[in-house]
# Entry
Amino acid sequence: MLVFVAFQLNSNAQIKLPNLISNGMVLQRNQPVKIWGWSSPKEKIEVSFVNKKYKTTADEKGNWNLELAAHKEGGPYEMTLKGKNQILISDILYGDVWFCSGQSNMVHQVELHKVRYADEVDKANFPEIRHLTIPTLTDLNGEKNDLPVVNWKTCNPSNVLQFSAVAYFFAKQLYEKYHIPIGLINSSVGGTPIEAWISENGLKEFPKLQSTIQKNRDTNYLNSFKTSMNAPKKMVQGDQGLINMWYDISYIPKGWRNINIPGFWEDQGIKNLDGNVWYRKEIEVPTSMTNEEGMIFLGRIVDADAVYINGKFIGGKTYQYPQRRYVLEKGILHPGKNSIVIRVTNTFGKGGFVPDKPYCIKINNQTLDLKGEWQYKVGEVFESQKQNTSPSFSAQDQPNALFNAMVAPLTNFAIKGFIWYQGESNVSRSNEYEQLQIAQINDWRKKWNQENTPFLYVQLPGFQDMNYLPSESQMAELRNAQLKALSVKATGMAIAIDLGEWNDIHPDRKKEVGDRLALLANKIAYHENDMVSNGPIWDSYLTDANKITVSFSNLGTGLISNDGEDLRYFAIAGEDKKFVWAKAIIENNKVIIWNDAINHPKYVRYAWADNPDDANLYNKELLPASPFEIIIK
# Structure
């Protein structure tokens, strides 16, 4: 009986398409495009599209596919599919499809940067730019063949807020230059390592990762993590600030102490506190700032916050990124004294307000500065626990887990190329990143069956504290690994060393990153070979006594110091690898580097630091040189 029911359900099955193939999609122009799906076994399927009919028959398992003839850019078109049922797909464009992936800096939506790019958002009316977001999914057991329901979104000032910011500005540059429809498929997850995005076969040269893949298919092994995964992070007592409503306008503050914003409370007399700390301040607001909508800027808060103005909740985040920018509706502020109360929660490390960020209220081109003296009171102290030494487990960090669920279902869909922004999660293992990056490029091209498909990626920008002495840097090691991956054909690396922020791993300047990726696409994907598409990249060197002369590619119209000052951030070392700052000059579009104290140089570095903020070697097109290390042979 069960067998009969199963046969009946199967025999009555209707044709079904993958969720990717849906209204508003962009198909890759100028190459055959595959359409595929599922149906009853041996069912006959007919597709009508752009004045042509295509026919195929499903196999014994109900799988079917067919290939549409290559077609130039254009649309919109409708597609009709007929089997036991009929499906209509509308508003289809032919153009260029880019697969966009990585971690949080590719995830970051335009909405998070709309203050910087308000004019761009207002003018984002590009109905031929489409964006599709893949939700976060993992699978440890194998490659999936479909996605959950997803939707192609047309670019307008409302929808663009949910677009990846880097991907949008990349697409906008291409669209305005070539006037060809652009499809963006954004498959990205914050905080994830590169190996999670590579298939099992693509990781075949990495025995440790292969071993992890096999372990992750063992239910008993995964169950061993459950206790530590589900254990509470902290023992908490009740927040007195919430209990006694310290944010309410009727509350009379007692026993509050002075503290400064910005700054961390551990740096201002509060020792090793994990917990909830409340901040309050009274400000004078002029009448001219009370009748219009505005915004409050509260920099970046570590880790979580809840903001109240005059007793009303304004906004809050449960994590330390992104920057706090909350809308102030009309009527929130009133003339005269107004109270601002902020509850800050921190569970590890220093808590409070990150320096060198905006802290103010802006309304009607008027600004109230919020930096300076506030009052604080501790609402809750989290009890210390013994350090948890049990191994942690996150499915999205596991090798091939994201590939299986967020990449594999898309590999039948023809594309123009890839853009990739990732690396922060691999900084501590930078020694293997070059090979992982190369493995990823080769793997994706093989999976898409598109040899030499352009693969464009972002070199990590500067981040963390400045260091005024030559030093080792894992960030620099990872950037160097990214640089070496350019050995693969049809790849391009957008140099972003000057686009970072020392106190934010998610820097705000996403347009510039997208623009630089688009420059690479102009040359690599659209074959504008005479175009200056990147900053200088070291190419070769010559030695003469104690001097090293370095030649560069991507010279453009010549090398410069972008600020007119002497070249900075060149370091040199002998066999002992004890680096000292070097003198460096530009001569005949080459850089000559030396230090009179190093007679036999063996190592040369440029911008080798977590955050070489004042590195100043550029080409005249104002594109920065890539950081590098040369080992003299």
The chain has three domains: 23-36+72-234+395-534, 240-381, 537-631. Residues 240-381 form a domain with the Jelly Rolls fold (CATH 2.60.120.260).
